[in-house]
Sequence to fold (476 residues):
Amino acid sequence: MTVRLLATRLCVRRQLRLCLAAGTALLLCACSLGPSYRKPAIPAPAAWTGTRADTKAAWPSADWWRGFASPQLDALIMRAQQANDDIAAAAARVREADAQMRIAGAPLLPSVEGSAVAERERSRTGGNPLNTYTEYAPQISASYELDFWGKNRAALHAAKALAAASRYDRETVELTVLTDVASTYFQVLALRERLHIAQDNLASAQAILKDLKLQQAAGTGNALDVAQQETTLDTLYAGIPPLRQQLRQAIDALAILTGQTPEAMNISGASLAELSLPVVRPGLPSNLLARRPDVAAAEAQLMAANADMAQARAAFFPDITLTASGGYASNALAGLLDPANEVFGLAASLVQPIFEGGALQGQSAYAKARYAELLADYHKTVIGAFANVEDALVALQQTGEQARRQRQAVIAARRAYAFAQAQLGAGTINVLTLLNTESALFSAEDGMAQIRLAHFQALIGLFNALGGGWQNKTEG
Fold:
């Protein structure tokens, strides 16, 4: 039976051709009522503050993290790309937007439906005996809404722009996650180094206390020196638990970023001093916008809002729909496909909104206000991108200078501590002087570890501000 019903397509095809031909003819005359999109003109600075316009650019590469020469960081980045939940959620939102785009594009194509009805009815007329009626009616129908005013095309353009925005958002999420992984990894290494410095200083303080107690027992020392050193020792002990807590929290944060449970995370080897510092320099500010996925996402949202305005405007005009149907109808299944049993229909309808209670005007006003909102957001995103780079550049410059100064301070503190130890042994200074130089050395080394971390994080901030090597392939 199914095979025989397919023969209906010969008859129905004639009706569909008439319907679609008429639709195509009118569609060729279709017009768009919305404003054409124009990229907002936001002038870029001629050069970055403190840099020359002709400075040779060294934009980040797509795998910017490899410049630190850390195999462990490379492995963490790779795992985050594969297992991070924020990246996975952003990828799912891309698929959602693609599905919405397919839904939005469906009204631009005809809809075709098939139906098969079999009815059996018994009825009595007057005093006549019961009559039994049987009817079989397989049919195919098609309908098509002429997009004469561009309403459906505008909806599709908006959906395409939102799908593009979702892809840019995913790139932004991935960039944020990867820079967070690198920054947190460097924090782990810095906290480890600070903990190691504190433990070394604690061991040194314990050795000094032991010597002072021996001197006190031999009668060459005094109780005040011992008490002062015990105070120093207790202070050093008290400073270690917070460092351990911060280290554990940083490792746990790194585990979450890489999609692991905290107990599965293991960071071994390397220190910040062993890593390389990749060179990165932004080129002209005008080139930045094509390297920032958040800027591209903001513009895509603006393009979608522009299409929404066209859609809202087209809603004021009538909808024109063509429908065609064809098939067979017979009370005998055996002769169902007889040409004499063919039935078909062709219709056109026009629906013009007359009174909608202000809904259409409200929708149009909303679309315009939404566009104005997103235009302001786009402007803020663009100038924010320039500010991000400026902030990152000054942070990198100043932390670099601070690190150079702090290295000199560490060298001087180590020299002073060595002199103090020698002079204490010779009896030319008291233990208080040694304790002071010891405290200064500890502060200098701990400060060096913190400043080194700040410099690495400033570099990560610059990679983030420059888009992490991403480029908008759709830019001309």
